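Cont'd.
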Amino acid sequence: MTVSTETESPVEIGVGLGTPLRLVLVYGHRESSRRAAARIALASCAEVRAVVPADDPRSFAELAQDLRDAEPDAVLACAADGKDVAGALVLLEALRLGCAAQRPPPRVLALGPDGVVERLRAAVPPFALERFAGDAAAVAALRALRRGGDEGRALREELIEDAARSLAASTAADAVVVDVSERTTSCVLARVGGELHAAHVGGLGVGEGADRVVLHAGLDRVRRWLPWPIDAPALLDRVFNRARWSGALPATEQALGIEMALAREAIAHVLRDAAYAGLDVAAMRAAPTALVTGRAASFPRRAQTLLVFVDGLEPTSLTAVLREPDEGRAERVALVASLRAERPVTLRLAHATGRDDRRVEPGSFTLAPVSGEVEVSAASGELRGRGHAGALGLLIDARGRPLSLPPRDAERIPVVAGWHAQIGALPSAAR
Amino acid sequence: MAWRYERWTADHRLPIGVVQRPEVGEHVKAGDVIATGVGLGSASRLLGARRIGVPPGDLERALRVPVGSEVRAGTVLARTGRRFARAVTAPGDGRVVHVTADGDLYFAPIVDHWVVRSTLDGEVTRSDDARITVEGEAWCLPGVAAYGPDAVGEIVLGVESPLEDLAPSRVDVRLGGRIVIAGARAVPEVITRGHACGVAGFVAGAAPAAGLRLVFGAGVSAAGAPSRDDRPTVLCLMGFGTAPLPREVFRLLTTLAGSRAAIHTASARLFVFAPADAADAPGDPLQVGLAGDYGGVRTISDGCAGAGEVAFPSELRAGALRCDGDVLPAANVRPFARAR
């Protein structure tokens, strides 16, 4: 994999996806505990097999059975205060019943005040309990498990986070990195101050994780992005075949369209998970610089990467989009101006070759062929900023947020095909 | 080629509530009951050590019935003292499920019974409350995904050629207890009708994914859905949609028809219990290719030749193979059954 610290200077790094980590989340009655558990799971790219709140309504035997079926490598317990202890103890007893014979046994990681964790410790044997003072230490422990003892291995999500930090440092502004690979999807926001909001979802992607995208999002949400009619059973066969065929390549436009649709929904799913964990999704959408990596950056056309990014992330301001395929250099793709105007807006563009006023109709989606640095300002004051137009130019997206698509095929397909055609995203959809 | 006679291992995961299981080293046959157990209802927590006045660690010694045993209402579960005895009694008919770290007891009523059957002829190499592992020799054909519970039965051909689909009208009670080779495609009508007629399981090149969702629920994934409940069993050997079986594999299945067999759904494998010399495994490694639009999987009969780097209709440039006159990305071609 090649990950660059700047757009023109790639660095070769040996990287692995790491061992898939099956994680069970246990959390107490407080919202903060739930969010901490979700945040750590997202940051560590674990595959969450079961979520057990302290007030779980399942019976003891059902809970023990579900924990046995989950076969967890690790259990993360987040307790905020003494009120969580009674519930957490029941869950840990269920874990003892369900997983006592599991080989290797699950590791129990606990976050919470000393006194609370000590009370849990008594219920954990034969499993070992490790207490962590904060999120970062727990994430480090879970990542170490994913390395499978190979300390020298760099995990993909660590490189994505490094790329986000570097991008934020080099642009002196917030930066978001969106990565969609065969079986993981990530959205990472690096703030100028060094703060990181990382969401990595394991088992979700455009390849081996394709069926999980359909499971989470629903088949219709994937199908709605296709610019041609396809019946649901035929689409499902294709998704399932792709999921069982690691590393397959889309030889036809249809297969490529399906991968693009899956990538959009994978990104949207990660954002939903990030919002659930209390990460700053609004800041991810408003980041002035965005880098797309992985399979989503390896589509043959830049416009395909751009469309997947815009539809999946739904940026809300002026965003300079770059992409960096796994086997290639970073390149500037386009500048995206997202408008939510309900009335026509005049957009003023200032670029190297002069000034330009453009009238933007609500719902429009157009690509302005400008190049170099562009200063953009909306007469309404909704949008103002500057950025590099990249290879494609300025994409003016006035479709609104959240993006809504007509439910009926007969209305939706022409609209989606029109978006593809506007930016030349598919060979058959000529502009 | 993974379709071969060899020594294999099959794991059988056990639900909570095991009553009986075999010892390591015991010999079992496919279809034998290797574990029995009970389904548990809503468990209640009984004061244990605190009730009888012993430290939590000493409760095990005061128990009058072992953990996991089935008892009648009023049975003394634990007791201390002689003249002024203190005891914990069963609140109803049921089972002592678990002893907690602080010395309490979980007690649950029994709501049903379950059995787990072996899917392999051989020797038990691991046996504990979570799983039983059996190791033995058999012909084995790995698939891509399997759905439903494990199945054991005699192999029978439901179709005459590998290109054919099994028609629902050909499924009747005469196929009861058998594992039916369903050809290129097992459609949901065939699967549900077969289940109603007592068919043990279906083995097909593929099954429509939407049909599998209809039969097994919307939560099924491409990785399969092993279960323990009363459902049909389906093994997809090549993919989803339609996938004619390679002639060599079909020929081998024809030769082994009438033999005892088992579908192990957790690992998506078909085991056939016939002598090693009952058939010849295909010599050349068979290859299959995923269609460029992901719509199906097909057998490549004449082998593949390198076609260099090719620009496909998707505009993707990648290393390609020319297989049976078709150009496919090299990444979309692989051996028929990758060893598991």
